[in-house]
C-alpha cells in the first residue's frame, strides 16, 4: 500500500534538466595581449573631456563658419577611439590585437551530476564582441558537452539580453538539434527585436522628444536620488518642469537637434566604427526596421564599405539569416514542443534619444521589444480609458493591475511575465522562478507566479496588486509651496520674454 501511494508522486514529478544560462553582453571582462584589463573601460573620462575640450571646440567653431565638420570629427575621434583600440573587432569582424575574455566555459564539475542544477552550473561564457553566428556554433557544442557529461537527453536555456540573441541564432542554425535536445527556453529582457536608442544612434535617427526627456530627467534626479538632498532634487525637478511648461525645453531640444544635424554625418559614422559600432554584437541589437539604414549610415562611402566588407558581411548574415526570421522560428519551435517563457521588466523611462521614447521599459529595452509585441502605456502613465474599453472581456485578464500593460497583444501571452521595478541590469529575482516555471511548464495562470509581479529590493518577487500611485504623490509641505510660488512667478516672466527668445532663435536659424 505504501509503495502504491508513492508511485503517483514519482510519476507526476517532471524530469529535471540542466539549465544553461547564456550571459549578456559586457558580462565577460576583456584583456589585451599584455594581460591588462581593458573592459570595463579604465579610461579617465573626465580627464579626456578636460584635455580635449578646447581643441574640439576650436574645430567645431571652424566647422560652423565654413560648414564643414570633417576636421572636428577627426579631432573628436582621435580623442576617443584609442580607448577602444584593443576592444573593437577588425574590419573583417575578427578579434583584434590578441585581446581575449576573462572567463571561459568550464563544465568538468558536471560529470556525474544528476540533479540540483542551478542557473550557474552550466553557464555559457563567450566573447560578446563577436558575431552571434560564430557564438551560436560554440553554444551548440556546449549543449552537446552538457548532455554528455550529465547523461540527460535535454537541456533548458536561459538567454539574458544579448544572450537571447545568441539563443535565437542557435535555434535558426540548428533547428533539428534544438527540437531534439531543448525542452524550454526563457528570455530575460531580450534584445532580439533590438534596442531603440542604440538603433537611433547607429542610423543617425536621433530625436529628442520633450516629454520623454522630461520624464527621464525627473526619474534619474528625483526617483533614483542622483541628487542626494531631497530639497535640491525637488528644486531641480521644478526647474525642468518650468522649462517644459514654458516651452523653453522644447526650444532647447529643437536647437540641439538642429546643431547635431549639422555634424552628425561627419562625426557619427567615423566615431561609431572606432568605438561601439566595432562590435558585431551591437549590430545584432539594432532593430530590424533600421538595420539597413544604420549599415548604410555608418559605412557611408564606397571606400569604407570596401575596407569593412568582411565586417559588413557578418552583420548582414545575422540580419538576413536570423533576425528577419525570429518570430517564425519561435513559432516553429513552439509547434515542435519547445516552451518559450518571456520575462519582461518595466516601469523605467527609456533613453530620450528616439522617436517614441516616451514609452517605458527596463531602462535599456522597451516593453514592446522585450515582449514581442505587448502594448504599454507611456512612462508614468496608464493605458487610456478608451483603450481599456476596447479590450475584450476574454483578454482583460492580460491587463496589468496597474493598467500600464496589455499582454494580450504579445507573441505568447500565456507564457510572458512582467516584473515591475526590476532594472535591465538586475536579474537575480528571476533565477529560481524561471527554472521552476520551465521545469513544471507553468503559465501565467500559476498562483505562485502570476503574469504581473513586482521586484522587492532586487532580491525577490511578489504579486503586483492595485494601481500605481508613484505619480500621484501629494506635496503639501512648506518647501513645495515656495516652489509652486516660484514656478508661477517664473512662468509669468517667461511668458513676457518668450516671443523675444523665439524671434532670436528663428533669426539665428535663418542666418
Summarize the structure.
The protein folds into two domains: 11-26 and 112-136 and 157-193 and 325-463, no CATH class; 30-99 and 195-322, no CATH class.
Keywords:
three-stranded antiparallel beta sheet, disordered N terminus, disordered C terminus, 511 residues, 2 domains, 14 strands, alpha/beta
> What share of residues is helical?
40-55%
Helix and strand content put the structural class at: alpha/beta
Summarize model confidence as the mean pLDDT. 84
What is the overall shape?
globular
> How many distinct domains?
2
Number of helices: 19
Strand percentage, roughly? 5-15%
**Spatial gap, N to C terminus:** 95 Å
Which residues form runs of ≥5 with pLDDT under 50?
1-11, 229-233, 246-251, 470-511
How many strands, which pairing sense, and closed or not: the largest β-sheet? 7 strands, mixed
Radius of gyration: 26 Å
Strand order of the largest sheet: 1-5-6-7-12-13-14
Using DSSP, what is the number of strands? 14
Question: In words, what does this structure look like?
Answer:
There is one protein chain. This protein is of the alpha/beta class. The protein has two domains: 11-26 and 112-136 and 157-193 and 325-463, no CATH class; 30-99 and 195-322, no CATH class. Helices cover 47% and strands 11% of the residues. The chain has a seven-stranded mixed sheet with strand order 1-5-6-7-12-13-14, sandwiched between helices. The protein has a three-stranded antiparallel sheet with strand order 3-2-4, with no helix packed on it. Helix 18 links the parallel strand 12 and strand 13 (452-456). Helix 2 packs antiparallel against helix 3 and helix 4 packs across helix 5 (162-173). It is globular and about 75 Å long. The model is unreliable at 1-11, 229-233, 246-251 and 470-511 (pLDDT under 50).
Amino acid at each position: 500500500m505504501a509503495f502504491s501511494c508513492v508511485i503517483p508522486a514519482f510519476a507526476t514529478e517532471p524530469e529535471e534538466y540542466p539549465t544553461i544560462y547564456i550571459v549578456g553582453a559586457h558580462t565577460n571582462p576583456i584583456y589585451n595581449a599584455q594581460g591588462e584589463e581593458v573592459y570595463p573601460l579604465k579610461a579617465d573620462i573626465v580627464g579626456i573631456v578636460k584635455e580635449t575640450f578646447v581643441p574640439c571646440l576650436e574645430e567645431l567653431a571652424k566647422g560652423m563658419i565654413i560648414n564643414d565638420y570633417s576636421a572636428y570629427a577627426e579631432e573628436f575621434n582621435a580623442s576617443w577611439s584609442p580607448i577602444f583600440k584593443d576592444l573593437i573587432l577588425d574590419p573583417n569582424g575578427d578579434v583584434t590585437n590578441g585581446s581575449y575574455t576573462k572567463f571561459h566555459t568550464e563544465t568538468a564539475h558536471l560529470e556525474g551530476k544528476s540533479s540540483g542544477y542551478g542557473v550557474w552550473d552550466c553557464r555559457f561564457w563567450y566573447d560578446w564582441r563577436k558575431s552571434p553566428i560564430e557564438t551560436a556554433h560554440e553554444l551548440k557544442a556546449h549543449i552537446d558537452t552538457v548532455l554528455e557529461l550529465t547523461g540527460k537527453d535535454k537541456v533548458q536555456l536561459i538567454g539574458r539580453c544579448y544572450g537571447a540573441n545568441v539563443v535565437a541564432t542557435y535555434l535558426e542554425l540548428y533547428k533539428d538539434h534544438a527540437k531534439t535536445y531543448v525542452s524550454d527556453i526563457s528570455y530575460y529582457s531580450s534584445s532580439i527585436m533590438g534596442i531603440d536608442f542604440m538603433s537611433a544612434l547607429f542610423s543617425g535617427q536621433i530625436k529628442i522628444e520633450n516629454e520623454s526627456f522630461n520624464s527621464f530627467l525627473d526619474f534619474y534626479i528625483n526617483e533614483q536620488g542622483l541628487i542626494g538632498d531631497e530639497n535640491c532634487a525637488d528644486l531641480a525637478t521644478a526647474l525642468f518642469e518650468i522649462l517644459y511648461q514654458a516651452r523653453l525645453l522644447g526650444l532647447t531640444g529643437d536647437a540641439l537637434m538642429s546643431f547635431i544635424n549639422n555634424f552628425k554625418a561627419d562625426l557619427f559614422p567615423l566615431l561609431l566604427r572606432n568605438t561601439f559600432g566595432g562590435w558585431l554584437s551591437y549590430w545584432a541589437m539594432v532593430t530590424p526596421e533600421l538595420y539597413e539604414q544604420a549599415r548604410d549610415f555608418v559605412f557611408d562611402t564606397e571606400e569604407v564599405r570596401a575596407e569593412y566588407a568582411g565586417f559588413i558581411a557578418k552583420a548582414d548574415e545575422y540580419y538576413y539569416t536570423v533576425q528577419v526570421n525570429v518570430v517564425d522560428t519561435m513559432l516553429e519551435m513552439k509547434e515542435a514542443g519547445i516552451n518559450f517563457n518571456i520575462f519582461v521588466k518595466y516601469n523605467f523611462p527609456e533613453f530620450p534619444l528616439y522617436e517614441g521614447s516616451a514609452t517605458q521599459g527596463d531602462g535599456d529595452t522597451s516593453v514592446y521589444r522585450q515582449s514581442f509585441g505587448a502594448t504599454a502605456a507611456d512612462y508614468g502613465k496608464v493605458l487610456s480609458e478608451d483603450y481599456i474599453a476596447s479590450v475584450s472581456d476574454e483578454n482583460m485578464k492580460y491587463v496589468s493591475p496597474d493598467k500600464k500593460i496589455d499582454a494580450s497583444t504579445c507573441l505568447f501571452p500565456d507564457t510572458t511575465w512582467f516584473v515591475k521595478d526590476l532594472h535591465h541590469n538586475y536579474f537575480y529575482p528571476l533565477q529560481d522562478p524561471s527554472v521552476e516555471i520551465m521545469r513544471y511548464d507553468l503559465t501565467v495562470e500559476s498562483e505562485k507566479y502570476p503574469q504581473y509581479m513586482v521586484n522587492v529590493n532586487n532580491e525577490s518577487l511578489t504579486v503586483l496588486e492595485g494601481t500605481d500611485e508613484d505619480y500621484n504623490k501629494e506635496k503639501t509641505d512648506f518647501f513645495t509651496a515656495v516652489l509652486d510660488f516660484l514656478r508661477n512667478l517664473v512662468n509669468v516672466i517667461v511668458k513676457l520674454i518668450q516671443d523675444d527668445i523665439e524671434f532670436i532663435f528663428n533669426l539665428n536659424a535663418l542666418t
